[in-house]
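Sequence decides. Consider this:

===
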Amino acid sequence: MNSAPIKRACIMGYPVAQSRSPMLYGYWLKHYGLTGEYGREEVAPDGFAEFFATFRARGYVGGNVTSPHKLAALRAMGRIDDAARAIGAVNTIWLEGDAWVGGNTDAYGFIANLDASAPGWDKGATNTAVVLGAGGATRAILFSLLTRGCDVIMLNRTRENADTLAAEFNAKDLGPRGNKVTVMGWCEMDAALAQADLLVNATVLGMLGKAPMDIDIKALKPAAVVYDIVYVPLETALLKQARAQGHRGVDGLGMLMHQGVPVFENMFGTRPEVTVELRQLLEDDIRAKTVGA
């Protein structure tokens, strides 16, 4: 009797050697006793269409899409979900019948991590989030904050990029209370922070090997939450500064784990849980590979 083919999935990007996704999904496959494989596929920046043409023939049932292919994946899908359409990027693909579907779980992962790590962060009558950066990650963050009913102030060193992104998202009318994105100049940092109930670093500043996020956050409200989507290192200089001032801090590792929950369910048919054991596994790996760096 023929056994069922092994379900295979992967992360596609350039580069992908540093990705913890194989560790994350490998843990869940083992934990739930499922037969499957999850690996890496390094796809050159201009090679996504050619690679995806043979994706199913390679035995894949789905995967994650990371930089620089999220827009190329959006164009290649037969169908995309509402989040991917609104965000303008695809971070996961899976098969439904014979059709490829593209989705975006970055927004889900961002907000689920925030809810779990800083419960009650949005319980005020009004909530204002200050988001630093106007790159690809910011798209999912704007979507999640606007749909959650937050007003957003965006700051980016290149003002034009922030203005363009704000206009795009304001035109989507995502906020349930007419919530909008406004843009302030980087030189207006203190004035923006004074309004923030939530501060989000959506840039790569502070990541291992990148320039630091060199800002002073003393103007923040005492109860403000600080969220850095960077997770290597686990505690960035921004988070250290925040915690030293008594703010609750949220790192990006939880976002990685939570965004993977619906991805794993779509590919392997079981909805996994984010656990203390899983986080410890990933933390230990990050610390082991960044010690002394």
In short: Residues 205 and 213 are 5 Å apart (CA to CA). The mean pLDDT is 94.
